[in-house]
Each structure stands twice: as structure tokens, then as C-alpha cells.
Please model this.
Amino acid sequence: GGAAKHEIVISDTSGRPPVSKDSVVDLEFGDPTMYESFWKGMGDRGTITIPSWQTISYFSDATNLCWFLEPEFAQEIRRLHNLVGNAVTEDRRIIVGTGSSQLLQAAVYALSPSDAPEPISVVSAVPYYSSYEPLMNHLRSGLFRWAGDACTFKGDSYIELVCSPRNPDGFLSQAVLKSDGGKTIHDLAYYWPQYTPITGPADHDIMIFTFSKSIGHAGSRIGWALVKDTAVARKMVKFLEISTIGVSKVSQIRAATILKVVSDSYENPIPGNQDKVFAFGRHLLANRWKKLREIVEASGIFSLPEFPSETCKFTGETAEILPGFAWLKCEKEGIEDCASFLRSHKIIARGGRFFGAEPKFVRVSMLDRDETFDLFIERLSSIR
Ligand code: PMP
Model:
């Protein structure tokens, strides 16, 4: 038939050259390509076809406060949180965003007083996620501005960003500031069972999650916020209306389909099937962390954070924290800048300064493809 004529071929290399023995190992960003092999193994489960006449309207549900939220997507979000037990969804508004990056901006906008003489300070405890500063400052808003480390902040009017488990160092964290005038936003991008034991459902005023790190689909640019207060939710929706008039329906429908595959695999398991994404992620990260810790211990040049183990309420098993990033510290005498030291060995990682920390630290992504990770381990073990 004529259909094939119009089909386009989707590249699967992310535009990066294939990894070879002497490639530069680029682990600066947290591109979650390790999940590619899992989704390849799922074959056609999660494949969607959308006729050209569908998804034309701007609207998804004109009766909902978040009128651009696809109802099936919202349903699968609630279902997944109930399954995993990582967040309370009762009496919460769901707001979808173009990645959690957009929702962080929407949340800060919604919490900023509109009548203050000065922009409100946005803070986060060091080491903080390196994108917080540009997200807050790039457009030089008159409403809010980045004010750095929450631990050294003085005053009682602020917005604190709490990232738990924390990007870059992996620790579970809580708000450090407590004041009646202060507000908090919880960035729970990594509060999923492959990265950390689930100790209970998170129950905060604003909780932000992302499709990118939960199950690996960063390219769909889907994030969601669970918001307690309706007035705050309304202001966040306003931000999204002004910014992008909503969020791609195609992405939401694809996300709903893929999330349904995930929940189905746990709720209606097929014995012996290797189709559970959190188990896949945990197993792969456990292997990678074991290899990395062995190399680091043998070298004596670097050190890594140590994490306690706890019972994961999702799996029922004792689990340690297996972060999506390695927060590597250079212990070698005379080397102050770990990022440039690694660069001289053809490894690219993000230096500590970007996270408000010392340049002795670097953040290395643990979420890349096997060939990249293996080359990283090989390079690291050759450093003396
Ligand atoms: N928050 C944290 C802590 C992250 O690590 C990331 C991705 N690196 C994001 C937010 C943004 O993710 P996205 O916009 O892809 O949802």
C-alpha cells in the first residue's frame, strides 16, 4: 500500500558517534540511555499509532483545571504512584509539563509573591542540581532569583528546592530551612525503586516527577507535578499556558501507554518474564556500582559516598541507594580540579563548582549505555 511511502526512519544513535576504544567518554549529562536495551526487549509493547486527524485540538479536558492534561495520562500516573507507593496522590492536582524542568519554573512562578519589592530568593542545599541556577536566573525574572546554598541563607522569605534522592550525590534529603514565610518544592526525579529504597509515600505540598528518570524516556519531555493547593495549581497552569499553551498530546498519550505497560507488568505478571523496568534498573545499577566501587577502592585516587541500606516497601527487600550519578571525589594530592584531571584521561564529567561544591568533586552519569559505561570503567582503572 501507500502507507510505507510516508514512513520516516527514526535514528537510534541520539546523533552521537558510536563508541570506540579511543572515544572520549562523555558522562557529563544524565542521558538515561541505559533504559534503551530494556525497552528494546519489550518489542511492540508500548508502540502506538495515532491517526492524523487525532490530537488536533489544543484541549484535552476542558472541564479540568489543567485543561491540557490527557485523562488517560493522569490515570496512569495515579496508578503508578499507588503501585510503587512513592507519593500520595489523593487530594492532589496533577499538572503535566514539558519535562520536569518546565514544572520547576512553573512552581517557582506560582509560589512567588506578585507584589514584593524584590524578587524572592530561590535556594537549595549544596550540592544542588546544577540546572537550578540557570532555570531560575536565565530570564532574569523580576519575581524570583537564585540565591544559592540553602544552608547559609538568612531570612524567612524564600523558596527552597529539595531534591531527594539528591542529584548529584544520591543522598535522601529534607528541607533545611523552616520558616512560616518560606515555601518548598520537592524534586523527586529519583524517588523510584531502582535508585533508592522506597521508605513510604512522599506527602509534600508540591512534588515534581519526570518520565526521564523514572522509566528512561527523556526524549518525550514529560514531567508531572502533584500539587495540594488549588490556587497554586491554577498559577502553575497559567505559567504553562503562557509558556507553551500546554504540553504535547502525542507525548502524553505515548507516556500513558508506556506507563500502562509498566504497571501491567507488575499487576498482571507473566511468570519468568524479564519485563519489570524497576527490577531491570536496579539490577543494572547494582552491577555498575559494584564495578565502580571495586575500581575506586583499588585506585586509592578517588572516593565515593557510602549509603545506608533500608527496607524498600515496594520490593519488601533490603536495598541500598544506587544513585543515577556517581559523586566522585579526587583524593590525589596536588589535584584540585577533578574535572580537568579526568578530561586529560578522556573522561568528561561535570565539575563540583556547578553544584555549589568544591572542584575536587565531579558528577558522573551512571545512566548511559553499556558500551559507554564499560569504557569509563576501563579508563578509570588505567589512571594511576
Ligand atoms: N530534576 C532533576 C533532579 C534532574 O536530575 C533532572 C534531569 N537531569 C530534571 C529535574 C529535569 O528533567 P526533565 O526536564 O527531563 O524532566
